[in-house]
Amino acid sequence: MTETAIVRGSRSFVSGDRFGALDLDGAPASAPGTWLRRPSRLTWWSEILLLAALYGIYSLVRNSVGDVSALAFENATAILHLEDAWDLAVERGLNDWVQGSAALAAVVALHYATLHFLVTPAVLVWLYRRRRTEYRVVSGTLMATTAVALLGFYLMPTAPPRLMPSERFVDVMSQTASWGWWPASGAPASDAISNQFAAMPSLHCAWALWCGMVLVVMVRRTWVRVIGVLYPLSTFFVVMGSGNHFLLDVVAGAVLLLLVGGAVLVGARQLQNRRTTVATA
């Protein structure tokens, strides 16, 4: 196989008849041979509008499930009893530890109320600017995971541990609301815009894991990769320590992301293979 080095300005490419074009840092470039094509006419403002519209639809659907409080508490009780039976209810000890330390509770509350809304958009922006070729498939995984999670909210509305004081859980967000900007409801947003019974699966954890995987897989700098590992792990700790999720909520969110991500990747590869077949026919 003959390979030719092509220099374009400050960037170098290595092109081959088997793998398509690769830039020197390992990212697939926009070339007919790559199965992740650069989307045509991808503009930043259209992406913002698309994401805003999808999130608006998601929020509208998620918060229009009606009065399901009785069922949500039944499901939460069933989850907790299952975890207790298998000695998996680690959220009990984590919540007790966090609420017993004012400093730790403050850190946990700050993490929960801020990073979820800062890190995910930042990673999306980075993908759009630096990994445009992979952007559509990778961001599509996040959107598809969010959409599928709606089924969980409908089929299994679940109350978070923080709403179960009889099980000795403490609402850390409410406990620290006097000095933070989050409301005393215990969620990072008011009840008017936040469904308190959408705990299963944990999208908070699914989004954090998505961010971590993007950073670990697509960034070369070691310190960024370390952050990519620590961010989802710290999020898992925070959502359970604050009383916002059960362990099984966290597991369900992670499994959902991996399953949907695999399906999106397989679908994208098959679509590209079909396009290649048509183009070469």
Radius of gyration: 22 Å
User: How are the strands ordered across the major sheet?
Assistant: 1-2-3
How much of the residues is beta strand, in percent? 5-15%
- Give unreliable regions as ranges: 1-40
What value does the average pLDDT take?
80
- Elements, N to C (H/E): EEEHHHHHHHHH
The number of helices is 9
The backbone outline, from C-alpha atoms, is: globular
Q: Terminal Cα separation, in Å? A: 23 Å
Number of DSSP E strands: 3
Structural domain tally: 2
* Helix/strand/pairing category: mainly alpha
Q: What portion of residues is helical? A: 55-70%
Described by strand count, sense and barrel closure, the largest sheet is: 3 strands, antiparallel
Oligomeric state as shown: single chain
